[in-house]
Write a structure and sequence with these properties.
Shape: flat
Number of helices: 27
Helix content: over 70%
GO cellular component, one term: GARP complex
Structural class: mainly alpha
Largest sheet: none
Strand content: under 5%
Subcellular location: Golgi apparatus, trans-Golgi network; Recycling endosome
Subunit structure: Component of the Golgi-associated retrograde protein (GARP) complex. Component of the endosome-associated retrograde protein (EARP) complex.
InterPro entries: Cullin_repeat-like_dom_sf, Vps51
Family: Belongs to the VPS51 family.
Amino acid sequence: MAAAAAGPGTGSGPGDSPEGPEAEAPERRRKAHGMLKLYYGLSEGETAGRPPGSDPLDPTDLNGAHFDPEVYLDKLRRECPLAQLMDSETDMVRQIRALDSDMQTLVYENYNKFISATDTIRKMKNDFRKMEDEMDRLATNMAVITDFSARISATLQDRHERITKLAGVHALLRKLQFLFELPSRLTKCVELGAYGQAVRYQGRARAVLQQYQHLPSFRAIQDDCQVITARLAQQLRQRFREGGSGAPEQAECVELLLALGEPAEELCDEFLAHARGRLEAELQSLEAELGPSPPAPDVLEFTDLGGSGFVGGLCQVASAYQELFAAQGPAGAEKLAAFARELGGRYFALVERRLAQEQGSGDNSLLVRALDRFHRRLRAPGALLAAAGLAEAATEIVERVARERLGHHLQGLRAAFLGCLTDVRQALAAPRLAGKEGPGLAELLANVASSILSHIKASLAAVHLFTAKEVSFSNKPYFRGEFCSQGVREGLIVGFIRSMCQTAQSFCDSPGEKGGATPPALLLLLSRLCLDYETATISYILTLTDEQFLVQDQSPVTPVSTLCAEARETARRLLTHYVKVQGLVISQMLRKSVETRDWLSTLEPRNVRAVMKRVVEDTTAIDVQVGLLYEEGVRKAQSSDSSKRTFSVYSSSRQQGRYAPSYTPSAPMDTNLLSNIQKLFSERIDVFSPVEFNKVSVLTGIIKISLKTLLECVRLRTFGRFGLQQVQVDCHFLQLYLWRFVADEELVHLLLDEVVASAALRCPDPVPMEPSVVEVICERG
């Protein structure tokens, strides 16, 4: 038992000998145990398998660092019975065997590593020994080299000083040789045209010659060089004034002249004068492109020509000027700005002339591309010449063209609307001329609405190109704010809607002017179009505009409700005018039928007059026409005897009183007084009351105007007995058919009652026809 208990503590490694000193055994075990803990990353005092909360100093803890076998065995003998001791022994033997197996496995698995580590350490020892030997030899060699270097330096010290002096003398002689050869070198450079090399030679020697000009030899060299330099400057000026070379060559001439000491202000003026000549030639070539022949290039090609020619030349001039004459200060900068401002203004005028030729074009894509390139080209000169304001002027031109394009598209929308109206007129007139049925009003209305909406969308798409992200000027404040709100929304869309309403209202002029020649069907169609705009189209168009053009401007805009109110008012006026026109047409027929007949000598009525049949037919046609575009409307409850009521009114007690045999012409005042008293108690009829947007209201207005006209015409005539009876028959016929078209059938009864009553008042012998006879005549008619 003791041997088994001591097994885990002592281990079975090859280095542990039971015959060793007793004091060294625990120390070696602790050392091995510590190395294992270090290898497996265990902290001090931490051991696998120890129960949590146990005392690390407990001598009976098998896994503890302070385990004491004797104490552990004494404890087991005291506390455990024999069976438990036997179980503990068995368990401990099993653990010892498991630990031995684990240790052997560990040794076998790491054996190659141990061998490799041993070989590596052995090689490192050998390599370090060789390296130490080589370092020792190197130190010895360095000491020898240092000694040799010191002796060589001491030997060559005197010679080094002499060599340094000789090198200085040699450099001085080369400089003197260069000075003596300078006139010939300058002459040769001038003859060969190497002006830049000559100026560099002169610049190298100028300070020396100036310093030693009191010496005769140097004075002579300086005089010769001045003569040659003067001739060089003259040739450079001649080359500069000829102007045959480009801007870089002329800038080089100016640079060389400045290096030769020529006055900068004079050269500045000459430089700008020569640059003006070249740029004016570019402007003249652009102006020639605008001539009548040959045909001018498209606007994109024109802006490319101007950008590569004039604008590119202006950039070169500005860059060279600022590089050459930077010492001139603000005065020189202002001179350059004035130069660029003048020529830039002429260039802008040519560009605007070419852009004006594009106003008749309906395609914006090419124009926007041209404006984009024009604006991009002027960025560089705008940055170089900020004081000249070229970039701002270019932006103003682009904005002005955008405004003009908005006006052009507005005119296009107006022309498209007028074209649609012309097409409607032709479609309404063509069937009548050919004697066949034409397209219905609903179809014509749909065609007009879709055509106008498609034109509006096309115009929005065209002007939206000005705000595209890839366009260089789209980020300008005008195109992010005012162009979208005041230009597109207010100027184009709201302006067109109001123009459309004004054009539609112009058809409501008094007869004899423009409105007299307007087909009534066109008035009805326009009224429905304006009503549709009020209910849905205006809101849709403005919402579409606001979505495409994200307005960032806070300026006030026209509310949708205001436009809808204007469109509704236009629709109301058109529909009211339609009622008046149609009422006037029927009234004219009734007036002529009354005025052209001799009512005193007319024969006894046998049938309904043809004009009354025509009135019913026209009213029915109007009912069908209005029903194509407007809803039915609301009617009052109709009586079951509507077709008989008129006649029953005529035969009432009131009429019997009027037509009684006791009626004689000797008492006209009494009859008129009775009629006037009865009118006081009858309902007043407003002939020109407001028209609602439904079929019943429209027909009611037309019938009121027609019957009121009939009443007024009857009041101007005198009737015989048979004339009164003919009026009675005609009115009963109208009652049979007209009551179904109006909102309140009582209105037809009242007006026709007034017509017959007025005819009776103007009849010397008012004897009415029997109701049964009237009915027979009307049914036969």
